[in-house]
């Protein structure tokens, strides 16, 4: 019975853990928007030029403002586009300083990324038009810079290689998905959303331009990128996949065969993830079913031993008028009861463990009805299947020989 308990417990628990992990991953991808397409600038290896007489390298690549305008005008089904320009900086408040990513973007950024305004407001059209020094911080960054203080209307200093600029905090934003976990090309720029400073795109270009300087030992790396990223929103999910070739054609028109961008499609990642989830669930189910099989073999062995121990009892029952069918049913019911009791304990244990993991440890764990039905149903089948041989063997005993058995 212990083998059945462990087997049923394993089926329910492993499937619940797999479902929870898959749910988290799917929600993360859905948060990007299933009807969105993300286009990122990627540095091509062949686009590095050495400037004369100095150890300085300059790279010109990536998306341009004209690409965003062309996509909006020429690709059918596009509702709006979101240009993004970002650079690595250092943000300072008082004695605290944190490495961050400075992001220039448009006011509709939260709607595109399913982000949530925790406090204050996000950037607006007037600030974009006036190129004002307003900024919005991510929640994690605000907690690091303003521990125990209200950051709204406070000033922060964003320091780069060439200059330092003062920005006034007008809002706190909480992102919903970590873009680092999305597939990228090997040479794509690493990104994090735990420490972002958002400013108007016009302000970004006016203060910093499109030149990003990276100082390293003995050399200076200069990158000129007009836009780090363009997000494209379509009217419906069905329009995304057919529009991908049109997007590539639109981008390739202004390029001479140079691949300096990558396209990430959340809906494709979502479909791939669902297929992977189905494969993983089947694998977990197979592993757990092995435990049930082992438990069933254990029950069969115990019942066979029971037949030997109870031979005299079987002879007495047969002498008093019990038929072979009665003996068969008796041993089948005993094997089945072992499995039913073990299956019930396993279901309660598996469900309880999943609830503890979900509610106490706060790790997403989802118990599905089908996993409970399959686990309990398999325990019944195992009981019937592995109880048949001992039952038949018991029923086949000769009554006279059974009565003589000591």
Give an overview of the whole structure.
With 406 residues, this protein is of the alpha+beta class. It folds into two domains: 2-21 and 272-404, no CATH class; 36-235, no CATH class. It is 50% helix and 23% strand. It has twelve helices and 14 strands. The strands form two sheets. A six-stranded mixed β-barrel has the order 4-5-10-7-9-8. Strands 2-3-12-11 form a four-stranded mixed beta sheet, with no helix packed on it. A hairpin with a 2-residue loop joins strand 11 (211-216) and strand 12 (219-224). Helix 1 (2-31) packs parallel to helix 10 and helix 10 packs antiparallel against helix 11. The model is unreliable at 48-55 and 178-192 (pLDDT under 50).
Primary descriptors:
6-stranded mixed barrel, 2 domains, elongated, alpha+beta, 4-stranded mixed β-sheet, 406 residues, 12 helices
Topology (SSEs and partners):
Elements: H1 2-31, E1 36-41, E2 48-50, E3 56-60, H2 65-74, E4 78-93, E5 96-105, H3 109-113, E6 116-120, H4 125-130, E7 134-138, H5 139-145, E8 155-159, E9 164-174, E10 196-200, H6 201-208, E11 211-216, E12 219-224, E13 229-234, H7 240-252, E14 261-264, H8 266-309, H9 311-319, H10 324-359, H11 369-395, H12 399-404
Parallel strand pairs: 3-12, 5-10, 7-9
Antiparallel strand pairs: 1-13, 1-14, 2-3, 4-5, 4-8, 4-13, 6-9, 7-10, 8-9, 11-12
């Amino acid at each position: 019975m212990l083998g059945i308990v462990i087997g049923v417990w394993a089926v329910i628990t492993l499937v619940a853990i797999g479902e929870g992990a898959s749910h988290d991953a799917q929600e993360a991808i859905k948060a990007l928007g299933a009807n969105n397409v993300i286009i990122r600038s990627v540095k091509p290896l062949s686009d590095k030029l050495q400037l004369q007489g100095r150890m300085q390298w300059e790279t010109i690549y990536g998306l341009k403002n004209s690409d965003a305008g062309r996509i909006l005008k020429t690709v059918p089904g596009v509702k709006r586009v979101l240009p993004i320009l970002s650079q690595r900086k250092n943000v300072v408040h008082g004695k605290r300083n944190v490495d961050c990513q400075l992001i220039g973007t448009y006011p509709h950024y939260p709607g595109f990324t399913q982000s949530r305004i925790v406090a204050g407001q996000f950037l607006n059209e007037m600030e974009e038009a006036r190129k004002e020094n307003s900024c919005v911080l991510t929640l994690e960054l605000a907690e690091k810079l303003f521990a125990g203080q209200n950051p709204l209307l406070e000033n922060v200093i964003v320091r780069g290689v060439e200059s330092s600029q003062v920005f006034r905090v007008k809002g706190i934003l909480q992102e919903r998905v970590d873009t680092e976990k999305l597939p990228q090309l090997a040479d794509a720029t690493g990104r994090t959303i735990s420490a972002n400073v958002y400013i108007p795109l016009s302000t970004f270009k006016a203060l910093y331009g499109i030149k990003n300087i990276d100082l390293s030992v003995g050399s200076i790396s200069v990158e000129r990128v007009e836009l780090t990223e363009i997000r494209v929103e379509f009217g419906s999910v069905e329009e995304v996949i057919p529009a991908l070739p049109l997007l590539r054609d639109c981008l390739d028109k202004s390029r001479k065969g140079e691949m300096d961008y990558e396209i990430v499609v959340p809906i494709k990642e979502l479909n791939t993830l669902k297929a992977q989830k189905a494969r993983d669930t089947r694998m977990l189910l197979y592993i757990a079913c092995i435990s049930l099989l082992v438990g069933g073999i254990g029950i069969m062995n115990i019942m066979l031993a029971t037949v030997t121990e109870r031979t005299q009892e079987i002879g007495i029952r047969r002498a008093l008028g019990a038929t072979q069918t009665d003996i068969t049913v008796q041993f089948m019911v005993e094997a089945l009861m072992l499995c039913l009791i073990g299956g019930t304990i396993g279901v309660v244990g598996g469900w309880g463990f999943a609830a503890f993991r979900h509610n106490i440890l706060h790790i997403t764990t989802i118990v599905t009805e089908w996993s409970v039905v399959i686990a309990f149903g398999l325990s019944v089948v195992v009981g019937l299947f592995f109880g048949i041989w001992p039952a038949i063997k018991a029923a086949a005993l000769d009554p006279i020989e059974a009565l003589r058995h000591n």
